[in-house]
Amino acid sequence: MDTQQISAPSRPPSPVRGDATPSSGVVHINSRHTSHFTVVGNHLAQHRELSLLAIGLATHIQSLPAGTKIGIKPLTERFPDSEARIAAALRELEVHGYLRRTRERLPNGRVVTRTCSYNQPGSTDAHPVPAPRRRPKPIHPAPVAAPAPALAPVATPAPPTPEVPEASAPPAPTAVTPTPPPHPASPTAPKPPPPPLPQPANPLPQLLHAATALLTDLHRHTPHITLTERDIHHLAPAVATWFERGTTPAAVRQALTSDLPQPLRFPAKFLRHRLIALLPPPATPTYQPAPLQNCDRCDRAFRSPTPGHCHDCTADEPHLLSA
């Protein structure tokens, strides 16, 4: 028989030991962790109702040491996701029992948020893990000196008896004003509400249409500014107020898109601030002279709000009447 010719290359060796390599799908290459690891249950990693962001956020929170701040602001600084997405993921974890947030008032009046993370939702004996404390150093007692040998008591003369003065009335007690207890510190004052958006005095349809078109077209000039339909509907009256005060569309676009911060995370809030802070003053009314009139006597032109006689004819009118 002829020798069989083999042209196909042989299959490369499997990275997994043994014959457990699946024919398709993921292949796990696992290494044993000996430090810096966190145990996460499959009920979280393979949850059917949680979003991928909520699963990853729960895993991150369970890996943090006790006492770490996990508010929306610290998480936004740590991850590239927006505040709205992180807040929605935290609400998902609260609904499914992986997180619990409660507000407590401290003795000084300050209100704080207590956050408890559960690695096994629904457990009745779950308790928060306390923060580790440092062990106090042992205090070695000072060596005690040996007691001195007792000496024989020495007789001392008795002190002279003092003369007793005559009895007198006891002094009147002094009134002591009680010190009032200190008042607890007032809680943090709430932030003042933001100023309202300017509104046009005469909301003409053509002004609102031009304002909507300008806001819709901003992303063509500045790709960093992308507004939703709700944002455009909310900001259009403020842009119409700029138009009502005599500002051109080019000037409005320049005021809204120049010197943008990097990165621009909230375009709608940024435009709202500039529309309020950079609002031009209302246009001052211009002086309009009185219209021209023709004198009824000499047909000379003069300015007056009503028709009649000019200044010269009015001055000569008494002479004409006397004649």
Description:
The termini are far apart. Helix 2 crosses helix 4. A hairpin with a 6-residue loop joins strand 3 and strand 4. The longest helix is centred in the last third of the chain and has 16 residues. By secondary structure, the protein is mostly helical. Among the domains are: 76 residues, Orthogonal Bundle (Arc Repressor Mutant, subunit A), CATH 1.10.10; 66 residues, no CATH class; 31 residues, no CATH class. 31% of the residues lie in helices and 6% in strands. The chain is built from ten helices and four strands; from the N terminus they run H-H-H-H-E-E-H-H-H-H-H-E-E-H. It has a two-stranded antiparallel ribbon. Strands 3-4 form a two-stranded antiparallel ribbon. The chain is elongated and about 130 Å long.
Text of the CATH class of the domain at 42-117 = Mainly Alpha
| Cα separation of the termini | 155 Å
Across the major sheet, the strand order is: 1-2
Order of helices and strands: HHHHEEHHHHHEEH
Rg from alpha-carbon coordinates: 44 Å
Keywords:
single chain; mainly alpha; two-stranded antiparallel sheet; 10 helices
What's the topology here?
Layout: H1 42-45, H2 52-62, H3 72-78, H4 83-95, E1 99-105, E2 111-117, H5 205-216, H6 218-221, H7 229-244, H8 249-257, H9 267-277, E3 292-294, E4 301-303, H10 311-322
Antiparallel strand pairs: 1-2, 3-4
Helix pairs in contact: 2-4, 5-7, 7-9
Outline:
By secondary structure, the chain is mainly α. Helices cover 31% and strands 6% of the residues. It has ten helices and four strands, in the order ααααββαααααββα.
